[in-house]
Design a protein that fits this description.
single chain; about 325 residues; TIM Barrel; six-stranded parallel β-sheet; three-stranded parallel β-sheet; about 10% strand; globular; binds manganese (II) ion
Length: about 325
């Protein structure tokens, strides 16, 4: 039997969710699915998913200032630990970090990994408009490297400045345009590219990073980005090599054979891990897709759970 692990699977902390309003507030049916653990387990069972690595949904602590986020983080992560502890064979956890205070975020990551057994952290988009490559955030990267756990770079809704400049005429008629329809992708790919350019990957040579959505288009673009950045006038940098060494990608919300094959050809099969993006995407659809995808049985088993089990050091 192939073990199925999914690692971009969201839940919601009721106390954290209280801090958001307007477009950042979750619709009631989604909220129920994010909060209800029994419903989650039934849906996992029906689709044949053995383990979910749970992460908070967006928005998360990146949208809150340090004075609110730091005290809140501890409770959020302790409550996640209790969910995992109640079902230790079915769940693992990614920490939610108060990134607006990088030293506190690094300390919280260490606490969550060493005391709660969490498998890494998820960061949702920009922190108060700032990308993660800024030097003030490097203590978080240093902690992840020292603890040997990955940081999952997850999208969030773009800042109002970006929405206004790029999407405004279409935002009302196509609200998903600035989200999963394109805006998430543009922002998260930029987050990843900036980390490669920043020098952080040289400073932390064993840092492990995860992107969802089959790498936010970057596997498809790697050759071109690499070629363009190696033209005269750019600081010498082996973009493609650095990206391929530090990044893993998941299939969250992106069940396309052509996209999967491109990602496998560019990054290698050992860098691709199954995920659904539950509850925004259907568990069954993801499992059925990968079961029928044009890969050999050995590769399918790696993608379904083998690689994630090794990378996150999950209990077998
Ligand atoms: Mn997601």
């Amino acid at each position: 039997m192939t073990r199925v692990v999914a690692l971009e699977e969201h839940y919601c902390d009721a106390e954290l969710a209280e801090h958001f309003s307007g477009g950042d507030r979750l619709a009631p049916p989604l909220r129920a699915r994010l909060l209800d653990i029994d419903l989650r387990l039934r849906d996992m069972d029906a689709a044949g998913i053995d383990v979910q690595v749970l992460s908070h949904t967006a928005p998360a602590l990146q949208k809150l200032p340090a004075e609110v986020a730091v005290p809140l983080a501890r409770g959020v992560n302790d409550r996640l630990q209790r969910i995992v502890e109640a079902h230790p064979t079915r769940f693992a956890g990614f920490a939610t970090l108060p990134t607006d205070d990088p030293d506190a975020a690094a300390a919280e990551l260490e606490r969550c990994v060493t005391q709660h057994g969490f498998k890494g952290a998820m960061v949702h988009g920009l922190t108060g408009g700032a990308f993660l490559d800024e030097r003030r955030f490097w203590p978080i990267l240093a902690a992840a490297e020292a603890l040997d756990v990955p940081i999952y770079l997850h999208p969030s809704v773009p800042s109002p400045v970006v929405t206004e400049a790029y999407y405004e005429p279409y935002a009302a008629e196509f609200p998903m345009l600035l989200r999963a329809g394109w805006g998430f992708t543009a922002e998260t790919a930029t987050q990843a590219i900036r980390l490669v350019l920043s020098g952080a990957l040289e400073a932390y040579p064993r840092l492990k990073l995860i992107l969802g959505h089959l790498g936010e288009t970057l596997p498809f673009l790697l050759w071109r980005v690499d070629q363009a950045l190696s033209r005269e006038g750019n600081r010498p940098l082996r973009f493609r090599e650095a990206f391929s060494r530090h990044f893993w990608v998941t299939t969250s919300g992106f069940f396309s054979n052509p996209a999967l094959l491109c990602t496998m050809m560019e990054m290698g099969i050992d860098r691709v891990m199954f995920s659904v993006d539950w509850p925004f995407v259907d568990n069954r659809q993801g499992v059925d897709w990968l079961n029928a995808a044009p890969v050999c049985a050995e590769d399918r088993a790696k993608v379904f759970g083998g690689t994630a089990t090794a990378l996150l050091r999950l209990q077998e």
